[in-house]
Amino acid sequence: MSQEHLCVASVPLFAHLDIEEQRNINQLVTHQVFEKGKQIMTPDGDPQLVVIAHGSMKMYQLSASGREQLLRVVGPGGYEGENLLLDARNENLFGEALEKTEACLLAYEDFQQLLLTSPPLSLKLLKMNAGKMMQIERQTQFLTMEKVEERLVTYLLNICKATESTQVDIPMKMKELASFLGTTPETLSRKWKWLEHEELIQRKGNKINVLDKEALEGYL
DNA sequence: CCATTAATTGTCG
DNA sequence: CGACAATTAATGG
Questions:
Q1: How many Å is the maximal CA-CA distance in chain A?
Q2: Residue A12 is inside which H or E element, if any?
Q3: Distance of CA A7 to the CA centre of its chain
Q4: CB of A182 under 7 A from strand C?
Q5: Per-domain residue ranges of chain A
Q6: Cα atoms in the Cβ-side hemisphere of radius 13 Å centred on A22
Q7: Of A59, A122, A125, A152, which has the fewest CB atoms closer than 10 Å, so is most exposed?
Q8: Residue A3: its pLDDT value, please?
């Protein structure tokens, strides 16, 4: 009983539905715990909707050279795989647990059936996907930039804008940020040093203090 | 403590 | 800039 973590009720995607529907969905859903580092989604796995209940999952692609490109991190309440369910398979997309993570899995057929029988759910999915789309567009803007420092500066300024502060706390390991920005930890480390040397920022571990936002914008 | 992983630094192509 | 190696720092048992 206490084991009923009911991700269905706690997840935005399903939260607004009435009890009847939630119970229905909950019956179709499978709960599974993934240890840190375990693959949650692979290109050749069964198509399914993955909803994160606890923990987090990183989504990434592998480049031709085998380097991984971090796309995003899905936290509690987030979901992934809806495009697989809509027949858009990505042959190079992986999801991996960043920590011990509990997920709720919904099979392809079941989810499709749900969409057919529940217009509210379909609508909610569309709305939430619109939000996801914006993040993806933001990620795309990185990929179109040639220089690493442009991507890094864009990343920094985005967070500044979002938090309305010049104090930026990098929410991931440098290794992962490097992957997110499409570069290597070595290059990233050198870019930090350069920005610091130019006295545009100040850094202590994952804490960045933006000293000259205007000058940074000059690099875009 | 030791072992493992992350971050940094140097050098080269 | 990325790849690789070597070194140092940080983390976790």
A1: 60
A2: helix A12-15
A3: 18
A4: yes
A5: 7-132, 148-217
A6: 16
A7: A122
A8: 47
Mean pLDDT of A102-129: 91
CATH topology (fold) of A7-132: Jelly Rolls (2.60.120)
Q: Per-residue pLDDT tens for A45-89? A: 999 999 998 899 999 998 888 899 999 999 999 999 998 877 678
Q: Which tokens is A188 given?
A: 């990233």
Bridge partners of A31? A104
- Give the fold, CATH level 3, of A148-217: Arc Repressor Mutant, subunit A (1.10.10)
In the numeric block, the tokens 């490109």 are attached to A69
CA–C1' gap, A16 and B4, in angstroms: 45
Eight-state DSSP code of residue A187: H
Backbone φ, ψ for residue A90 (5° rounding): -110, 115
**Residues 6+ positions from A121 with CB-CB distance below 8 Å:** A13, A14, A17, A21, A114, A115
**Which residue is nearest nucleotide C2, judged by alpha carbon to C1' distance?**
A184
The predicted model scores a pTM of: 0.84
Cβ neighbourhood burial of A46 (10 Å; 0-12, 13-18, 19+): exposed
